[in-house]
Specification:
Blueprint lengths: L36 E3 L4 H11 L11 E3 L8 E2 L5 E2 L32 H4 L3 H7 L10 H30 L10 H8 L4 H11 L38 H14 L3 H8 L3 H20 L7 H6 L11 E11 L6 H7 E2 L4 E10 L5 E4 L3 E2 L4 H7 L11 E4 L12 E4 L9 H13 L1 H11 L2 H4 L10 H15 L5 H9 L1
Parallel strand pairs: 5-10, 10-11
Antiparallel strand pairs: 1-2, 3-4, 5-7, 6-7, 7-8, 7-9
Amino acid sequence: MSSSKPPKYQKRDNPNSDFCCVPKCAVSGKFNSTVSFHHIPKDETLRKLWMRNVRRENLVVKRTTTVCSRHFVSTDVIQGGRRHLREGAVPVLFAWNDYSLPAASVWERRPRPEDEGTEKENMDVELLLQCHDYDAKPEPSALDIAYEKIETQQLLIEELQKRLEEVTLKQSFGLERFSASDDDIRFYTRFASYRHLQAFWRQIEPATSRIVRVGTQPSTFSTTEAPVTAADPSRQTCRCLPLIDELFLFLVYLSLGLTEKDLADRFNIHQTAVSRIIKSWVHFLYTLLGAVRIWMSPEEIRATMPSVFSKYSDTQVIIDHTELRCQMPSSLLVQSETFSQCKSHTTMKGMIGVSPHGAVTFVSSLYPGSVSDKELFRQSEIIPLLDKDMAVMVDEGFRIDDLVPCKVHRLLCDKSHLSHDEVLVTQDFAQLRMHVDKIIQRIKGIKLFDSVIPLSISGSINQLFAVACLLTNYQNKPLVKAWAKELTLC
């Protein structure tokens, strides 16, 4: 009879728990009775400690997930019968710490037992140094790792916020977006530069608290209340845009003649808000700029008279008219009144006065296009401003000698009956009248007036025309560069 030899190792009863979940641990319970395997505790706090120590924080714990006894100190494993762990035991021995506990830090405070005598106080220093491993690198705690992650996330958030601000600024259509480009400022506002626009804004900003919002209910103010200022935003009316961007919107509307729907899409506001902003600002600027005296006294004219006007030093103002094409009205009577033979279109006619050094000093209202130059001059109310010591410079269409008490310098266009001396005088005279022509060209360059004006804005066209003419005194550099150079030298 043959006898079988007993196996060298006895196989464990539960083959499903034969493997340790700790990284770098190759211990298997198969044919191994010297190592015990212990399940992950159910207590949440204790389980987190186990997961952190074994470096498997994202481990999916199953019924068969175990840690072998090799990773526990011997005092935590209770022998006798079936091995089990001491309550609260945590795995601390791993391959990355060479299966040994880290030495205690020299800075760690520990309570001294009362029964220790003077023998430990006299312990040899060399023995203490031998017991401490100065080359040991403590494992980073979960708090340190979390702190590093937080710092990294904060840096990432700051970078993303910076990028978001840059993208938002590029997408937003406001004055700040174009502040770095004077070419864009000239295109959208007709101001010479961003510096010129800011100087104009500083002049009108204190008065912006008195803007009357079109479409809002007027409120009653007590005489004892302090005025509303830009520095007190809590008392201001709710606005869709900052005040300076509202001004920018109005200037874009005036300069480019964009529709309200287009402006609403650009500024990301409602079309009704665009209409209210335009009406509010045209009323405000018409009142504010209209209150500034632009008519100059003879003394002021002589003080700023360019040397090119030496032959016409008594000139007070250069007069000319301009016509704006408008949409043809349905009424035949209004059509006949507004039709201009010169433009072969229905127009509105206005008169502009310019000083010899190039500043706009007079702006009339708009009249039907069929009115003559003489009648336009009569109704413009400029006659009371003239006296006998002045002279006005006009073209041949203004037959106003019987209307004004002053001298009239008139450009003669029919050169066929002029003498040689009269032709030379007429040429000099035409060069001087170029100032008013340049002003009119600047006004005609405004896209709102360059195209056919719709009847929908006929109620505010007088205010728009006056504001556009008055703004030329703030938007542009001097017309007569020789005079500007002389003034700088003085």
